[in-house]
Amino acid sequence: MDYLSQYARLLRVLFIVIPYWSFVALGISLLAYYAFEGGPLTWLLMAAFGLLVMVLALGLARLFSATPSAYGKATFAGLADLRQAGLFKRGPIIGKAKGRHLRFDQPGHLLTFAPTRSGKGVGAVIPNLLDHPGSVVVTDIKGENHAITRAYRETLGQVIAFAPFDPTLSGDGYNPLDFIRTFTPNEVDDARMIAEMLVAPDGKEANHWEREARTLLTGLLLHVALERKAQERNLHRVRALLMRDRSGFEAVIDAMAQSPHIVISTIGRGFSQKEDKERGAVISTAQSRLEPFDSPLLQAATNHSSFKMEDLKRETLSLFIIIPPEYVAVYQPVLRLMVGLATAAMTREAKRPKHPVLFLLDELPALGHMRPIEDGIGYLAGYGAILWLFVQDLDQLQKTYVKWRSMIANCAVRQAFNVQDTQTAELLSGMLGQRTVRTRSGSRSGRFPWLWMATNFNETVAETGRPLLSPAEIMLLPENQMLVFVQGCKPILAEKLRYFSDRYFRKRFDATVSNNDDSADHGVSAAVPQIQ
Length: 532
What we know:
nine-stranded mixed sheet, alpha/beta, elongated, 13 strands, 3 domains, 20 helices, Rossmann fold
């Protein structure tokens, strides 16, 4: 940098006195021309003058084009960077740039920051449902993603709509107790995992009552799955046992204590030895977690299975988990259980599927804290699963997951658009990095400084760092632009997708169904061709 500064000062001194040199050289060349009538000396002098000007011009060009980097040299990715990163190949569609779809073709998970009604549906979820050739698991709060893409997904394989509260759908169901591999060494761990999903401690350390409630539920799940009639093997039956009166529940515990199954009997005997006050608190905790299964509609959807979770890896299966927005808070345990079991199924077989299983988890915080997601983000990619997590802002993620920093770091692709809060904008600005800005100030003195004939010239060069985009600039990005961060690539200023106006998706979706999350803002037209 010192050498460059000295070189710059030298060039500027030369540039200041160029008028003298140029007049002298021009005079000599003209004199030589007339004196020697265009002889060799003329051409020699002219060549020397031209060489001088060329050297000075090249030096100045190099000086002014040099990119300062003392504080960083962050820039947005260009076409060559996108090609080098392999973003025009295959994989989930993460945006658009240079008129082409950007795709991520590496093992790794994705995270999107986008507020409500910002285009997540039209720009990320639906395009990938209309493109991904493998299995998908979708938390579809409004059911619109299913309605728009079902016809196309059916051309790839079986479509399951787990929608207990929508009588217009086919009545698909899933019994969580079918996930327990009964009469195998795995049955205890499977039951314990379901109990943990039902009694989730919201990312904090489970308290005594929650730990004991999990243990009790583990025993009851095994008892119902192994020792009850087939028609009773469901979570509603577990809830019914918990809701018995004192004598009725004591009979259940006595039956468990006498079970030939060592784990069931151990849990039964251990519970019977507790004092009445502790027993009451544990039962109350377990009852509250299974309260959603009092719903007759939910009972009907969870007393049978239309599919196996393991089929997500074995064949092309599209699973839409649909809970109306007004019911999400009450039936959060159901959402959490379904997604948790689907992620757990990924590790049951080491063999990777032909195409990755894509989890599109819209409104992730609505599921509450999910340990399978928090832990699985570090290893699920190795089993052929891709998690795509959608959150409204950083605050949502922080409130739900204690390890939010690790979750962000473990996502190979991070995407953000229509950012409206300063906390998220500050995070993104830091991720973009800094660039070095050079400023110059100088003065000339002496005779005729305005004619570049100064005898003294003073110049000060200062370098400072500034973000590639400040938080304020990020919040003011145009509605059709978004930021994309891909591991191993410069940050990308990309275009948002709109599936309904993209020729690639024509005839792949049902245009008679509007996506209310976005269509009101972007004008989905029912005139777009429907799927054939």
